[in-house]
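B., you asked whether I could sanity-check this one before it goes into the benchmark set. Here's the sequence:
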Amino acid sequence: MLDVVRDVMAPIRARVEPTDVLRQAAVALSEGATGLAVVEVEGRQGVFTERDLLRAIGAGIDLDTAPVADHMSTSPLALQASSTVQSACDLMIERNTRHLLVYEGDDLAGVLNMRDVVGVLSGAAQMGEVPPAKGS
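And here's what the prediction gave me:
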């Protein structure tokens, strides 16, 4: 049984700058086949997600001029790689989020997303090799 987040987490597949425009972030998400991009801001990690992109599109924001910094989360939810998968699932449900940053001590080690957890726990994927959803 997979007990700790370290066994289920995935690598960071996309990174963007706070000054990148939303279209650049959308391309990074698409190319990484992921729903989360890490954004380095003043020595800390923020995140830009597909939900952030959808909110901007829905609001009619110009994707070619609006910077990521105006639409990202600067204090994303995170946990340690040694945390239990159960506690990660509880946190995702409690805080209505699909992604958690994962740290080994002070170092960013990866990301945990619902697809990773569901894929591995259902037996549909091997640890650390959860494929992107078909069509994404």
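One thing to flag: Confidence is low (pLDDT under 50) at residues 130-136. Otherwise nothing jumped out at me.
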